[in-house]
Amino acid sequence: MAEHFYISTAGNKLRMALSIVGLICFNLATVVDAAEQHFFISIPTLTVATEDDSLVGTTGIWAIQIDRLSEPMGLVVQFNEGSRAFGPFKGRALEPDSKEAARTAVLAACRILAEDPRTWRVTFKEISTAYLIGGPSAGGGIAVALVAAIRGVTLQPGVVMTGAITLDGRIIPVGELPTKIRGAAAAGLSTILIPVGQARTREWNLWVLAENLGVTVIEVDDWSKLLISFLRYLLLLALVLWIGGIVFFSFIASPSVFKILPREQAGQVVSDIFPKYHVLVYASCLIALACLFGLRQLGAVQSVRAAMIVLVLMGGMQVTMGTVIGPKVIEARDAVKSATPGPEKNRLEKKFRRLHGVSMIFNLVLLILGLILLYWFAIRLQL
């Protein structure tokens, strides 16, 4: 079923402004006040407008709030229609099939998250230039957004999904895809996810259309695969940044700095880099752990206990380097610089070399463990 909405008197400028807002909201999709079990996320959607007796593709925004209740009270799915809570943009009226698609998306998300839907209260608000929204094609994107909000994952900017969803998470066909893709391209969206088997039909060839418009079309048949792909990407990116940081800092940046600059200045430069470097690797460790846990929950990878242990071990070693060994190396280096020649300076130099050696051993062990993890993920993660 094609998703249509009916234009009041809005013009192209307002529609483009909404498209830009949709992109911003999609990029800034975040969890708000997660400690109190309230989550908020917004995503862009594709719709088809009837304007001057012709179909025009455009975009809207679905704003979603999830309240996770402490006790099962029964699933509540409500729709904020007509309120001005979002400034000048009213929540648009929704046809019954759009509401049913949203409810199905909620149940599908609860299923993949293994959560009791009776503990959820979900509020939807559709923001666009329309006064009435119909059709189920936002269901797939809503389900992805719900899981992303609960998991604390920020969705990729420039990506939009159109496709209805079933209770078991399958993405099923929708109509008017060429019109929707033209609308997505006009709004500046770069990647459009569509149901599998709909890129090339008797009615259209979306591969050719996408190439002409400069956008990417990807077919999907299971919405959970989208989240799995994103978590895999994020996991590998975190590990590559972590290991790449070790290699770059230890074998390229630090030797080059000490080769070009006087020893004292080189030490100051390295000392300034250290805190930023450790923030990067701490973040990489936490992201990798979160992604691995998410992939395990989604069933994308099995037997992750060993990998989890290695990641925790690496994180512990990195924290030890950043909070214990690193400061002691800097302290010993400064003590050597301020000491006068003699037995005491010789003792301090030995201490500095010993601590520096321990730091190098830690880096080497981290590098080896990181490479082992990358190899393990390359085998276990079916990309």
What can you see in these coordinates?
The chain has helices spanning 12-27, 96-113, 139-151, 177-186, 206-213, 223-260, 263-297, 305-338, 343-380; strands at 4-7, 38-51, 54-68, 76-79, 93-94, 120-127, 130-133, 159-161, 164-165, 171-172, 191-195, 216-220. By secondary structure, it is an alpha/beta fold. It has a seven-stranded mixed sheet with strand order 4-6-3-2-1-7-5, with helices on both faces. It has a three-stranded parallel sheet with strand order 8-11-12, with helices on both faces. Strands 9-10 form a two-stranded antiparallel sheet. The longest helix has 38 residues, at 223-260. 35% of the residues are buried.
Sheet bearing the most strands, described? 7 strands, mixed
Overall body shape = elongated
Number of helices: 9
Q: Structural class, from secondary structure content?
A: alpha/beta
Task: Tell me how many strands there are.
Answer: 12
Which CATH class of the largest domain is shown?
Alpha Beta
Mean pLDDT: 80
Helix coverage percent? 40-55%
Assess the beta-strand content as a share of residues. 15-25%
Order of helices and strands: EHEEEEHEEHEEEHEHEHHHH
CATH fold node name of the largest domain = Ribosomal Protein S5, domain 2
Could you give the order of strands across the largest sheet?
4-6-3-2-1-7-5
- Uncertain regions spanning at least 5 consecutive residues: 1-35
CATH architecture of the largest domain: 2-Layer Sandwich
Tally of discrete structural domains? 2
Radius of gyration: 26 Å
Distance between the termini: 32 Å
